[in-house]
Specification:
The chain has one domain. The chain is globular and about 45 Å long. Helices cover about 75% and strands about 0% of the residues. The longest helix is centred in the last third of the chain and has 29 residues. It has about 170 residues and is mostly helical. It contains six helices and no strands.
Length: about 170
């Protein structure tokens, strides 16, 4: 269960920072999706599926609180992305930060397209020129992914104990 805590803690710490800094950068529609990085890290990690899915859903709910989009959109797409990455063979081949960034790039594109599809189903008008902000979001998320992988891996190593005799 400690493998669930590391990406959850990093995601919850970086999410308010991301929400606070992006307006100052000048990006209105594109963002580096820290929640998606945490969800993919949970999906490719060795934690139990139930705890990882619950943590992904929780991260999606927190992202819903910080963004003015339809409620539940990020929670639903986070859970869908978690299931897709967990079930795909590509998710099992993640060995380092570069392969993690590739999986995050694919998951980011899928999440953006699923969110656009869900928004169009509920009658939300989607701008015609949404391709460029989508590409910017995928690029920014892919650039943040190796740093997130390193940070979550370092925290995960700090949370696990090597000597289990102390726990008896």
């Amino acid at each position: 269960m400690t493998a669930t805590f590391a990406p959850l803690i990093v995601g919850l710490l970086l999410l308010p920072l991301e929400a606070a800094l992006l307006p100052f950068v000048g990006l209105s529609t594109a963002r580096a999706d820290v929640v998606l990085c945490a969800v993919v890290f949970l999906a490719v990690g060795g934690a139990a599926t139930l705890w990882s899915a619950a943590a992904s859903f929780l991260l999606g709910l927190v992202a819903d609180l910080l963004t003015p989009v339809h409620p539940g959109l990020f929670a639903l797409t986070a859970l869908l992305v978690f299931m897709l990455v967990r079930l795909s063979p590509l998710g099992r081949e993640v060995r380092g930060a570069v392969s993690f960034a590739v999986v995050v790039a694919l998951a980011s594109a899928v999440q953006q397209l699923v969110a656009l599809g869900l928004l169009s189903l509920v009658g939300q008008k989607i701008p015609r020129a949404y391709g460029w902000p989508l590409a910017q979001s995928v690029l920014l998320t892919t650039l943040v992914a190796p740093g997130f992988h390193w940070l979550a891996t370092q925290l995960d190593r700090g949370l696990t104990r090597e000597d289990t005799s102390l726990l008896r």
